[in-house]
Specification:
This is Exopolyphosphatase / guanosine-5'-triphosphate,3'-diphosphate pyrophosphatase. InterPro entries: ATPase_NBD, GppA/Ppx_hydrolase, Ppx_GppA_N. By secondary structure, the chain is α/β, with parallel strands linked by helices. It contains 13 helices and 11 strands. β7 and β8 form a beta hairpin. α2 runs parallel beside α4, α6 crosses α12 and α8 crosses α12. The longest helix is centred in the first third of the chain and has 20 residues. The model has no long low-confidence stretch (mean pLDDT about 90).
């Protein structure tokens, strides 16, 4: 069966998917990997990709491309999102990726990022949702909201420049968080999300990307990571409130030791938890389904076709 690969280069992490297309036209994963490289470190303030962030990301990107080729991938699609969009020197990263990894990286718009994330969620959740789907994709540099109908059509999408890395760098400096820092960040999020239109009646909220999956693994003490236990799980709003309080109250060293939390994500997870919490409040959502998939699966269908 033919194999294809996608690599999602985000502000905080790089994700690899190698999948094969079945005779029925579905994609089945052969390999999935993720590494935190923090490409977007400092971009919110400097508007430039740092040499350290680029080097760490290029090393992982090169290794992932080699793995995909070794597994027989006929094509490799690579996307880059918020950090690369915002950086004045993004072209330097694209040129280096071509030279070192032999791949062409496409910097995708926030609108396309939202559409691909929704496509992934629709493939996995439309059959069980009673009505419309709402998707929240919390990244390191941006957060996308998408409302769509059961047929898979997107009715609303918007990308906000709020992400776990960006807001940590902008608002959170004390260890553990100072009460005033949390209050300032919460006020900023409430003001930002106040522009969201009311969700369609009967909507199901689905969260994708590392913040949401990490909150679920911490809540359920899942270690090592188990995609089958994460995919399709549910976080209630009361659970997210408890997680936000706990994560914001712990020093960084103690967060790093929590079961289910990658140590490299420990510094930005409080901001990520607050983004999800304030989004759920703005949307009046009592719960959030959890998707382990996201943009890389949407990109797979977008670039290589699926039934």
């Amino acid at each position: 069966m033919p194999r294809f690969a996608t690599i999602d280069v985000g502000t905080n992490s790089v994700l690899l998917l190698v999948a094969e297309r079945t005779p029925e036209g579905r994609f089945e994963a052969v390999l999935e990997r993720a590494e935190i490289t923090r490409l977007g470190r400092g971009v919110d303030q400097s508007r430039r990709l740092s040499p350290e962030g680029m080097e760490a990301t290029l090393e992982v990107l090169t290794a992932f491309a080699q793995e995909a080729r070794a597994l027989g991938a006929q094509g490799i699609a690579v996307s880059a999102t918020s950090a690369a969009r915002d950086a004045q020197n993004g072209h330097e990263f694209l040129e280096a990726a071509q030279q070192r990894a032999g791949v062409s990286v496409e910097i995708i718009s926030g609108a396309l990022e939202a559409q691909l994330s929704f496509a992934s969620v629709h493939m996995d959740f439309a059959h069980e949702a009673a009505g419309p789907l709402m998707v929240i994709d919390i990244g390191g540099g941006s957060t996308e909201f998408i409302y769509g109908n059961p047929a898979g059509q997107v009715d609303f999408r918007h990308s906000y420049d709020v992400g776990a890395v960006r807001l940590t760098e902008r608002f959170l400096h004390a260890d553990p968080l100072a009460a005033g820092e949390r209050e300032q960040l919460t006020a900023f999020l409430r003001s930002t999300f106040a522009t969201l239109p009311p969700p369609p009646p009967g909507s199901t909220l689905v969260g994708v990307a590392g913040t949401v999956t990490t909150l679920f693994t911490v809540q359920n003490r899942i270690e090592p990571y188990d995609a089958q236990r994460v995919q399709g799980g549910t976080l209630t709003r009361s659970e997210v409130e408890g997680l936000a309080d706990r994560l914001c109250g712990l020093p960084l060293a103690e967060r790093r030791a929590l079961p289910g939390l990658q140590p490299k994500r420990a510094d930005v997870i409080p901001a990520g938890a607050l983004i999800l919490l304030e989004a759920m409040r703005a949307l009046k959502a009592s719960g959030c389904r959890v998707s382990d998939r996201g943009l890389r699966w949407g990109l797979l269908a977008h670039r290589f076709g699926a039934a």
